[in-house]
Amino acid sequence: MIAPEKNRIVLLAGATGLVGGQILQLLLNNPEISCIHALSRRPLKVSHQKLQVHLVDFTSLPPLPHADELYLALGTTLKVAGSKEAFRAVDFSANLAVARAAVSAGVSRIGLVSAGGANAKSSMFYTRVKGELEEALKELPNMTLVIAQPSILLDYRRGLGQPLRLMEMISIPLAKLLSPLFPGAYKPVRPQAVARALVNSVPTAEGIVVLTSDQLVKLGRR
């Protein structure tokens, strides 16, 4: 583990999401961060002297400003996306496009919000796409990569303007109640903990680091 540098410049994609919004707040409050370039499809409700918002089309990205770190929190749901193709366009293609553009802009450290059970060979579409993205990012040259694999996120998406999902209404209360019984990689975790674990780990990590849900819970308390 190395010491984090000061006056770092950060790229963030997905600042309007559950975890991405928490990452943004932590970065804004971090005195070691001098500038945050947020890539978004729509304007953000947050303003700050350190924050620069870039409205972009993720299918046709412009050259990105120089940065030291990238946080990838772009994601959708099958219901919101409307099809598997549309889901993959966001969760795989858009994230990978940002990562490649960020490398060209000087980024050497990436933090990724993935998912528990992510596996490029999974029979489940959702976890397969997440796993394929992880594998693609591992191929980027000379990169420190920290992958967060949260299980159930203990928060609702109603504040994001997304429809409340039936499974969400059922799973979150149950997960809160039964959390002590879940084994490590399946332990429910709050979005704030995922964000804190990534923001604290990315500047100091070396090589490829995978943080399972129980590790996110533990690191998120610090």
Please give a structural write-up:
The structure is a single chain. The relative contact order is 0.15. Strand 1, helix 1 and strand 2 (33-40) form a beta-alpha-beta unit. This protein has a single domain, classed as NAD(P)-binding Rossmann-like Domain (Rossmann fold, 3-Layer(aba) Sandwich), CATH 3.40.50. The radius of gyration is 16 Å and the shape is globular. The chain has a seven-stranded parallel β-sheet with strand order 3-2-1-4-5-6-7, with helices on both faces. The protein has seven helices and seven strands; from the N terminus they run E-H-E-E-E-H-H-E-H-E-H-H-E-H. By secondary structure, it is an alpha/beta fold. Helix content is 36%, strand content 18%.
Summarize the model shown.
The chain is an alpha/beta fold.
Shape: globular
Beta-strand percent range:
15-25%
Query: What letter string, H or E per element, gives the SSE order?
Result: EHEEEHHEHEHHEH
Quaternary structure state of the chains depicted:
single chain
Distinct helical segment count: 7
Number of strands: 7
CATH superfamily: NAD(P)-binding Rossmann-like Domain
CATH class: Alpha Beta
- Largest sheet descriptor: 7 strands, parallel
From the 3D structure, determine the CATH topology. Answer: Rossmann fold
Question: What structural category characterises the helix and strand content?
Answer: alpha/beta
Distance between the termini: 16 Å
Query: In CATH terms, what is the architecture?
Result: 3-Layer(aba) Sandwich
Q: List the strand order in the largest sheet.
A: 3-2-1-4-5-6-7
Average pLDDT over all residues? 88
Please compute the radius of gyration using only Cα atoms. 16 Å
How many domain modules? 1
In helices, the fraction of residues equals 25-40%
Low-confidence stretches: 156-160
